[in-house]
Amino acid sequence: MTAHEVLSALESRDNHQAWLAAWALIRSPNAALDRDYVPVLDRIRTAVGRLPEPERPAVRDSRDCVRLALRIVEARSEGRCRCSVYASTDQILPESQAQHGLIDILGTRDIPWEPEFDCQCTDCGARYVVRENHGYHYPWAAWSPSPR
Ligand SMILES: [Zn+2]
């Protein structure tokens, strides 16, 4: 998805399109966020505010991840790294982030249902301990700054 397609999808007022676009944005490194999305932060904020209520009940409101994408662009506009937002959500899964080159996984502890990861942001070098949980309807992850 190009940045132009992401913006169009966010402005489509279609929650599924916006959800796809939000993930494309969330999977962007700082340089791409700064180039493609920070200059249009106001457009993104307006588009997110115009998304309709979900039509049917779901385990989770798909707009949550669209709002997360918005918070990531807001963080960049304030000079903070994208990863500064990760501790505020449970939707960022370490292995997916690593596949997109956004973090390095430095270590893994195979605890049943709750694997733990030591992660480092590839943009700013911040380290996190991430506890993942696979016991619910969908996996979630809790990010905390690493004590070391
Ligand atoms: Zn970072």
Report on this structure.
The chain is globular, with a radius of gyration of 15 Å. The protein has a four-stranded antiparallel β-sheet with strand order 1-2-3-4. The chain is built from six helices and four strands. It folds into two domains: 1-80; 89-148. 39% of the residues lie in helices and 18% in strands. The chain is α+β, with helices and mostly antiparallel strands and 148 residues long. The model has no long low-confidence stretch (mean pLDDT 94). The longest helix is centred in the middle third of the chain and has 15 residues, at 63-77. Helix 2 (15-26) crosses helix 5.
Helix content: 25-40%
Can you count the helices?
Answer: 6
Mean pLDDT: 94
* Biggest β-sheet strands, sense, barrel: 4 strands, antiparallel
Write a concise keyword list for the protein shown above.
2 domains, globular, binds zinc ion, single chain, alpha+beta, 4 strands, about 150 residues, four-stranded antiparallel sheet
In short, what is this structure?
The chain has 148 residues and is of the alpha+beta class.
Give the topology.
Layout: H1 3-10, H2 15-26, H3 30-37, H4 41-49, H5 63-77, H6 94-99, E1 103-109, E2 116-121, E3 127-133, E4 140-145
Antiparallel strand pairs: 1-2, 2-3, 3-4
Helix pairs in contact: 1-2, 2-5, 3-5, 4-5
Bound molecules: zinc ion.
